[in-house]
Amino acid sequence: MKSSRWRWHLDEMFVKINGERHYLWRAVDHEGEVLESFVTKTRDKKAALKFLKKAMRKHGCPEVVVTDRLRSYGAALKEIGASGRQETGRWLNNRAENSHLPFRRRERAMLRFRRMRSLQKFAAVHASIYNLFNSERSLHSRPNFKLNRAAALAEWRGLCAK
């Protein structure tokens, strides 16, 4: 897989479901595309390990894993045997932190979540739609940006027509 040689940014965010705190674990590649999202009730080594195994099963093993300083990541990566690939730093994980913003906007518009299952489904669908339509505006000229946007819209309409 081509994504196996990429840099992954891992982060977790707090999401309230009926007043109870849950954690949405997310893996973002170096281009800002959301690779995987996973909802748990805990924020420990077991949850981090389950999330990492799920992401690696689907996308292969990354070259570098950038995380915040949560110790669960280090413990999970050590158990997998990839502790040498972990990087932590003050601003290294901004790619993952900034990927939470569109999700938070949609979450507020939806007036939060009621069940863990609906959060997991929404996170997966939101990531795939966001990945399709989000193209770095600053990297393309206006005509190319419009062509890419039109292609994404045509693909979306094709998917909806099936």
From TrEMBL:
UniProt key word Cell inner membrane: no
GO MF assignments: DNA binding
Domain annotation DDE: ranges: 6-134
One Gene Ontology biological process: transposition
Stored SUPFAM superfamilies: Ribonuclease H-like
Physiological role: Involved in the transposition of the insertion sequence.
Protein name (database record): Integrase core domain protein
Organism for this UniProt entry: Roseovarius litorisediminis
